[in-house]
Amino acid sequence: MTSTTTHASARAIPLSVYVLAAGIFAMVTSEFAVAGLMPQLAEGLGTGIEQIGYLVTIFAVAMTVGGPILTMFLLRVPPKTALLVIIAVFLIGNVIAALASSYPVMVVARIISGVASQAFFGIAVSMCAQLVDERMRGRANGVAMNGLMLGTLLGLPLATFVGGRLGWQAAFWTISLLTLIAAILTVLFVRNPAESGAVEEAPASPRDEIAVLRRPQFLLALVSSTLIIGATFSAFSFFTPILTEVTGFSEGLVPLLLLAYGAATLVGNMVVARLADRHTISTLLIGTGLNVIFLSGFALFTDAPPTALAFMLGIGLVGVTMNPAMAVRVQRAGSTTPLVNTVHASFITLGVILGSAIGSALIPAHGLRAPVVLGIVLAALAIPAILPALASSYLRSGDRDEADEADEADEADEHTLSPV
């Protein structure tokens, strides 16, 4: 009876992971809110749509650069305490946004929120990996990533609805309320890995964590994650104008189509989470290969509404949904520590920036299909960055062989012999 109970508990996802997903949901809702409230923000802050668009970029840059820095400052703090500090910073950023009366104040608010959002994401993913058995990391990451998918599916429409009915300030007050709820749930239900009986990875010094970032397989994992997400967002960022101006759907129908896309990402995330532990690299290869096919179909048949919609839903199934498998690969190639996972999250955000920024630059000369073609190229480039991981059975499926153990021994020797 005891062994059966132990086995069952090892395969269960702790409540803490679901609470972390709720926190990610609040963060993602804030991240996407500006995109849904551009006209209201432009009018309220006395500026143009272009300047409001820069707020999206500012948030993403703050995530990419500031997230790892904030995480570095919190390395020696227990994970739960670090999360609560980050939530407090994030709440301050959203309250400032709700009270903003000028564009510069809103810029400050978005920087604060962006830095906190990325740090939360990295520490939350790190905790997910440490709260469960190593064979369950993919599923735990998948549960946490549901917060990301639901943020796209429900959070953005919620912020847009509230902002449209009650004003953009009300949208940020709503996000602040969601943040408070996440904080209360964190206090009540999130436990540090050591308190949960999990095997917590020993705290590393900043120097040791930075040394991990130089591992070749880890660097390849960062490159592939950047390209996979960049490929998806080069298309996703422009779905609305493509669907209305090229495919011919009415503006009123587009929100429903995006809702269907969000549902596809939710389904895809659950499937990938199931496969991410035992079939990590094959999942990434097959998913990315399918994304090349779906992006190509969307580019070729953009003016055929039913076909274009089918390929768009395919992109939803295999694009951003690679996150659980990407996270497992990074944790095996690097570690489960917060800094490693925050750096990975920053490279994912870099992919968003590259896909949307380069896609925008291509449109004036090459039209709305150009960002989708860019996505095809980025997804195709991701495949060579994934292939070298096939050489390691540990990266492929979590099984260690003699070569993997020898590599770990070499790394340990190098660390021991390295000068202080």
Summarize the structure.
The protein is mainly α and 420 residues long.
Task: Please tell me about this protein's structure.
The chain is mostly helical and 420 residues long. Helices cover 80% and strands 0% of the residues. It is built from 19 helices and no strands. α3 (38-45) crosses α4 (49-73), α7 runs antiparallel to α12 (254-275) and α10 (216-236) packs across α16 (338-366). The protein is globular, with a radius of gyration of 21 Å. It starts with a helix and ends with a helix. 50% of the residues are buried. The model is unreliable at 1-10 and 412-420 (pLDDT under 50).
Give a quick set of tags describing it.
19 helices; mainly alpha; disordered N terminus; 420 residues; disordered C terminus; globular
| Quantity of strands, as a count | 0
**Helix run count:** 19
| Series of H and E elements | HHHHHHHHHHHHHHHHHHH
Structural class by secondary-structure content: mainly alpha
Tell me the strand percentage band: under 5%
Shape: globular
Helix amount, in percent?
over 70%
The mean pLDDT is: 86
Largest sheet: none
Low-pLDDT residue intervals, each spanning 5 or more residues: 1-10, 412-420
What would you report as the Rg, rounded to the nearest angstrom?
A: 21 Å
Distance between the termini: 50 Å
